[in-house]
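Summary for the steering committee. The consortium agreed at its last meeting that each partner would contribute one worked example illustrating the joint modelling workflow. Our contribution is presented below. We chose a case with several input lines so that the handling of multiple components could be demonstrated. No manual editing was applied between input and output; the record is shown as generated.
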Amino acid sequence: MTFRLFIVGLGPGAEGQVTQEAREALAQATDLLGYGLYVTRAVVFGAADQAVPHVTDNREELGRARHALELAMQGRVPVVVSGGDAGVFGMASAVFEAVAEGPEAWRAIDIRVIPGVTAVLATAARLGAPLGGDFCVISLSDNLKPWDVVVRRLRLAAEAGLVIALYNPRSLARPGQLDLGLAALRDVLPGEIPVVFARAIGRPTEHVLSTTLSQARGESADMSTLVLIGCAHTKQIERPGQIPWLYTLRRVP
Amino acid sequence: MTFRLFIVGLGPGAEGQVTQEAREALAQATDLLGYGLYVTRAVVFGAADQAVPHVTDNREELGRARHALELAMQGRVPVVVSGGDAGVFGMASAVFEAVAEGPEAWRAIDIRVIPGVTAVLATAARLGAPLGGDFCVISLSDNLKPWDVVVRRLRLAAEAGLVIALYNPRSLARPGQLDLGLAALRDVLPGEIPVVFARAIGRPTEHVLSTTLSQARGESADMSTLVLIGCAHTKQIERPGQIPWLYTLRRVP
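What follows is the complete predicted structure of the assembly.
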């Protein structure tokens, strides 16, 4: 018997940004596991009618992963869902961590990770081409890593001249960290570097704020915002009546 | 009159990894502009039958971008296509560079960038969850930036503890640079760090080589390979008869 488990990235939220592969996995689900918002989205995006929803909080990722692996061993077809791409601060890592720590039998499960459009790609596309050069993706949360590691990574990334995408920039429990991170970046980068706060890209509640590093304030972000920090080669194109286009030169002079 | 232009990411190559949005843009095309492989793929993925193909070499990106903008100004609906995501070492940056340098009228064109699944996401999904933590995406090509910038970025990214995805790792014109880049990384990272060479992920010619930093050799890559270099928290899970799963711990101890 083949035991199967899917880990599916649902994309940024708009139905048109889901891949066909993701839809096909959802259509096979007997169980859907994830954060409430993503389980709801999975149903909208075509999960099988009989799929049993298992909604858990975002802090319970390892328990959710183990539950999915147990369901797979019972011959069910659990689908673990994440927003964006499940491999980028989503559920994929938690599932493999659970496998590594779990019973040997779990290694025989046919685990398929279905990639998706992660937030930084959708945000960049909406703005123009700010990822035109090298870039990095950093979570600002210190739930899982020490804060001094976060700051060190920001500084080194800025010194390297990488465009920086910040996931999880701010939460109620961490209201001040984004300002500290921006201050660390100001030590390395000039104040006129473009900074964008992008929320709910591609959805009806979309909001984009374009500013500069010197003027950026943490209060412009919440947990659902992606913060994009340009590099020395990130340029703006002004347009009448629209947010400016942002792009990073492919060429480093 | 609205002038329109689409820039579309076609995903890694498998038809199931294309988004619905990308298909809808292709279906509206009067003209397809891109590298031959991607124009062919765009036709397979549902480009309008009457779309005129304009195939150009990868070294002619700015000229291709200007051509697309001129077609848009003629009232046609040009679709510029890239593999993966057009914003990640694809055509998006070239189009906006052409807009910035071009006539003012081009700023009125409704340019839509349709995001796609870029190679590093598809590769990570195939391997497990190697992007479980912070990561960066760096092009190893020095066609557009000095080689010392490339090496400096690699060293700083490794010092930061980021997982590193290398695009364009090797070409006929640059046969030795990947070995130089790997040598620079060995100065910073321990030799047992996992390294993966992944080619044509999700396609029939898929090839994956899992090794370590100390044993990695540039000759294992070509221009179509993505090279993924783990960090200190990237782990392997051995499986009978299969390539090992690779994942990066979400937690930095």
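The first strand of chain B starts at residue 4 and ends at 9. Chain B has seven helices and 13 strands.
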